[in-house]
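Our preliminary data section would be incomplete without showing what the modeling component actually yields. Below, a chain of 544 amino acids is followed by its predicted structure, encoded as tokens that our downstream tools consume directly.
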Amino acid sequence: MMRNLNFDFIIVGAGSAGCVLANELSTDASCEVLLLEAGPMDTSLFIHMPAGVYRVFRETSLNWNYFTASEKALNERAIYTPRGRVVGGSSSINSMVYMRGHRIDYDRWAKDFDLAEWEFKNCLPYFIAGENYKTASNSWRGKKGRLEVKQADYPDPLFDAFLEAGKQSGQGYSDDLNGSNPEGLARLDSTISNGKRCSAATAHLKPALGRPNLTLFTLAQTNKILINNTNAEGVVFTHSTGTFTAYAQQEVLICCGSINSPTLLMKSGIGPAKHLQECNITTLLNAPGVGKNLQDHAKIRLQFASQKYLPFHAINKPINKMKSGINWMLNGRGMASSNIWEAGGFIRSNDDVEHPNLQYHFGPLGFSIKNGKIKVEQAFSLNVDQMRPKSTGYIRLNPSAVNNHPIINFNYMKEICDIREMIEAVKKARELVSQSAFDEFRGVEMTPGNDFQSDKDIEKMLRVNIETAYHPSCTCRMGYDDDAVTDSQFRVHGVNRLRVVDASAMPRIVSANLNAPVQMMAARAADFILKRPQLRQIELQYTI
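Predicted structure:
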């Protein structure tokens, strides 16, 4: 099967981080790099068709299909938590929104966790260097990177109404949320190139696969990290033809995401000693922070009937669906080239918040999902995400079946301040849609409905309807206290030649979608690993 079981670097997970590392490390022709991915190649047509997002993220063959344990504060509900199990990882099934996060997010990493290297001025040059934003016209944006980024521009009067309502309500407007004005409503940036999804696989991995020193294995499930004394020496993985051991002469790099990275560490004997003992796993390193500190953006969706029947509403009709698909395949244009959530923004739930703590994603259609099938409604949708929850959760192995799905508990809304913030989020969303800009479109509130008006009633509704915004993070966090798992360069404390590079290394969740920040982190990690100098700091000022 393999010409060589010995490599310089072994990367586990071909997601947002793993694809970046595979490209960067394999630029050195003297380095042999092995990339292992549990899922298949990204050959599904619907991965590459932006409007196929709601089909592809529920496709069981491309997904880990996780559910949380019963979330106590959400009426004991188990929350569906899809994660990409395919080349490109979750960047192959996400909504393609490109968002960097606020300066204060990264500066707080530096201040609160003794991570001076992670001030925003150290991260910004990697965001700029990583993107190819063809319309870049200022120093905030880059044109030379691998990741194609564009500002959404599909014409629909509901997008215009949304932006105008931001101005009318005082919630604001921005011409570039990733630039000097990271607050207000805007047309969002998306990772779309020539009408197709630009995943981490498309941007980073595919251009590198022709290199003779990069080996990719798909459908390869990594079961264990090999550790001898305090050195990571390789991994054990299964493939269709059997179980294999691969050795790393330099480093093992874990890029499995915030659920699977701590899971793999614990299966390998790195984690909370008491828990590993419960699972009959020999403790090689007592690391109490592994799997701890799980964070996510909670989400509530509001849907309003549209008084006008607009093109997106007709997409259910087979003839329209066929025409749209043909136009996309031939020209890369039309509705199929839209990721739907083309507008959004960042706002503050109240005047006491230091920087925006709520995020909008706006779509010009409504939809319902029944028996796995999506039905488009004559409506428009407004998702509101909570950016900086105080509640944290955990990842644990299942003691009775350690090789099954792990136990996932976000503890959504455990802290009362979080539910209060989400009540404010519903009110802000309703305030926005009540503006005159929506008068010719706004029908009845379909979801959650006008029955929920008092704070008490809204709270009850939220506990029944809150979902994940698909941004799990922080379970192998950077830092230097007892609960830190890695240092500022992603090296696992107490184990040599082992790093964790993905969203799990975030010490605190950022106020943004996670794909862009993770690719930035991985690019920095590559420079740390190869002992290249970090890019020169860039300090730019916000205009607000």
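DSSP finds 13 helices and 29 strands in the chain. The chain has a mean pLDDT of 96. Preliminary results of this kind motivate Aim 1 of the renewal.
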